[in-house]
Amino acid sequence: MSGSYNEHSKFSPSAAHRILACTPSLLLEQQFPNETSTYAEEGTAAHELAEHKLKKALKMCSKKPVSKYDSDEMDEMTDIYVEYCLGVIEKAKENCNDLQILIEQKLDFNDYVKGGFGRGDLVVVGTGELKVIDFKYGKNVIVSAEKNPQMMLYVLSALSLFDMLYDIEKVTMTIVQPRVDNFSTYEMNVHDLLKWAEEELKPKAELALKGEGEFCAGEHCRFCRAKNQCRARTVKNLELLKYEFADPSLLSNDEIAEIMRVANELSKWASDIYTYATALAINEGKNFDGYKIVEARARRKYTDEDAVAQTAKAAGYNDIYKTSLVSITEMEKLMGKKKFNEILGALVDKPKGNLTLVPDSDKRRAITLVNAEFQVEE
Ligand code: SF4
Description:
By secondary structure, the protein is of the alpha+beta class. The protein has three domains: 13-210, Lambda Exonuclease, Chain A, CATH 3.90.320; 219-281; 294-376, no CATH class. Helices cover 43% and strands 17% of the residues. The protein has eleven helices and eleven strands. The protein has helices at residues 16-21, 25-28, 38-57, 72-95, 149-166, 190-210, 231-240, 253-284, 305-314, 328-335, 337-344, and strands spanning 100-108, 117-126, 129-135, 170-177, 182-189, 291-295, 301-302, 348-349, 355-359, 367-370, 373-376. It has a five-stranded mixed β-sheet, with helices on both faces. It has a two-stranded antiparallel ribbon with strand order 6-9. Strands 7-8 form a two-stranded antiparallel sheet. Helix 5 (149-166) links the parallel strand 3 (129-135) and strand 4 (170-177). Bound molecules: iron/sulfur cluster. The site of iron/sulfur cluster has 14 residues, from helix 2 and helix 7. It holds the Pfam family DUF2800. Keywords: Hydrolase. This is PD-(D/E)XK nuclease superfamily protein. InterPro entries: DUF2800, PDDEXK-like_dom_sf. One of its GO terms (molecular function) is hydrolase activity.
């Protein structure tokens, strides 16, 4: 394996789209921890497996990785990726008998972005052309290869290594995202790519590395570590609320469509802020005026269904099956709350609910952090 999956440059290719759209975000987000997620870990495991399978298929030395995320789906998706890559390699061999094939290669684009590097999943270089393929295991965001800065950075790096030898004119970038059946390919000529690198990438990267430039909020904020506290994002979202309507009485369909678009952005932002504030209140005991922590409602469960059925029948309740034993709520209705507690109370488990942040007006009693323990307020 060439380098570690956890090795990252400050200007990460996977964040290039956001950094180029909002250059000061690069330094602003450094003050927030780079927390990993199960999705990210699963993605790394899928990449390691894909790398191993591709190397094996090309008769290269590789040891099968083992991960807690191994699954039939991962096996199938990595097979699809490998099959696609082998097809590309076979086709490239038709035009060149001296192909260069790089798998999970560290790609350095320091010529354009100081200290910048990334890892290309597959780079195939032959006479006159260069192909870069990137495997995406995620399925929540469909990624397009069209003018994708991450791919363009990989290509720039590979070009600087091979252009002299292969006289490359055309580059092809492909995203293989098998879980959503997305195979996105974009072709560029080298001249246009270099123009972009000189005129857009270089100057913006310089600004970004100095923390300069204009803040610019947009769809790209969702992956920024500063997104919950970013003032520019807040200002932009509050501006969305100032929508002015031409007709004072009724909304047109166009206006309704516009409101839905705005509402979508606002609800994502509100949810980010709420999650962030809840985590601060629960994990660090931070106070937010007008809000308190309570225990969320938890679902009750029968501890032993057979015992419940026997006990309920012994108490004279026979109508307690539909396709299976009736739910706790239905049973409670059938018996009445008091009797239900007397007869089945010992056979019902009520797990503790998760803590959650709610407005002070909520009826539930507040829970406060006392000596690192949560206690219900008297
Ligand atoms: S949240 Fe958005 S606007 Fe704010 S720094 Fe990050 S990318 Fe820029």
